Protein: Transcription factor 25 (basic helix-loop-helix)
Amino acid sequence: DLCICFQRTVPDDNIDLLLENLEQPNGLSLQSENCGGSDRRSVLHVEHRNLNPETELKKYFGARAVLGDQRPRHRNRQFQSSNWMTAPKDSWPRHSRPGLSMTLLQSQDGIQYFTFEHSRDYQQLQFKFLDAVESMDPNNIVALLQLNPYHIDSLLQLSDVFRIQENQEMARDLIERALYSLECAFHPLFSLTSGTSRLDYLRPENRAFYLALYKHMIFLEKRGCPRTALEYCKLILSLDPDSDPLCMLLIIDFLMLRTREYQALLQLYQDWEEHRNLSQLPNFAFSTALSHFHLSKQEDMDPEESDKQRQKADLMLQNALIMFPGVLMPLLDLCSVQPDAAVTSHSFFGPKSQIGQSLALAELTALYVGRTYNVWREAGVMLWLEQSVREVLRRVDAKDPLVEDYQNKRKQRYQSAPRNIHRHVLLCEIKEAISSLPLVRNDPQPHLKTVPVGASNESTLSLFFRSLLPNFNLQGGPRQEDDMEVARAGHELNQEVNRLMVAMRDMLANIRFQEPPREDNPYRDEEEWD
Structure:
């Protein structure tokens, strides 16, 4: 009767069967049944003003510091009133409809189902884009963009190039331009804030919007705007809350912790636990405990209520550590904390807790630790964690029946993970989580047409080049049965991949983007690519 459980094991070499089984309802589908719209509304409600990072920055620094003497210039003024996600910049080319539109497919039970559509000319642009990708020369994507400055997939792909080159400002600017063009194509009835507008991720035309929103959210969080990033997280989740194609439930708790919205996080957990089994995800198991702990420390809380919150926090953290013992040692390592001998010498938290967990569970724990370790670094939080670890060891030594019960559940539930979790891990850029991905060569429904699902030990850079090199295969051939052969082949393969990555980094570092003749693009701004 669990909505969240992991799929039965299938032979590792049968990748097609694995992918097929991952889509079955008894996998970790994170899909809901009989989920009331009122519950979703409280969690997914989005406000237009919170989609603008200036709203958050003004709270931190004041309007004068954020806006200065900025005045909108006449050229793009006509577009500014109708766009909520990004405002056009003077450095951008003039916007003309690139052949992208949105259609209302149907309305049912108060929910509107939309889809983006490509005109015939835009479809031809897509073919040119694929040719540019296959040429392995980013200059060809640049040339395509200079002639078609609002082609979405080109903007997304070139943003990745600039991000790899550590030009974060240009990478972010290209994502914002993509969002601006996508928003200009919205159907009049499509709403960012109602929570009732849906986009099917399985339609290829819709995926670029999901990707642009996700990348924009990550840039906002890194820029120091976690509240705005949370708003975009809720927006992405609202577009398809049942399937959650990018598995936003793996990051929403982190953003709520970053913005200190502890009550909202606990409300989300309470509303969705029954039908989504959030407690089976390591991030919610630990983050809800941390929320109760922070609430117990609030000065304006009644002492009796504070004690209740602390007791809940203690019990929930202990249970999380018993359910997911593989989280502790990597977490302490990233927090630069050396555990005492009583912990390191105990088998429960020792190397066995890492080696013994499945790849699917390792993927989830590595993702959580790599993303949230900073919220555990606070001295008071670390002291609380230490006390909880000691109590867990006492319960383990006392043969607490919950320990064996959770061990059995780990074996039953976390045998494989569904595609939406893999998509999330590929986008997260957390190398420890990416290295835990199973060996899967191709995803029939990748998050971008040109980007296949990745493989273990594959860096973000190699994932990008897999999108440029369709025949690039990290596995180098079928998996062999003999363990020694697999280990030896894997070692040799890693050396080859490392050499390739060094060469690719050198190539990217030396890229000089060439501009086509100006007469080919009369609308190009003087300073566009400067």
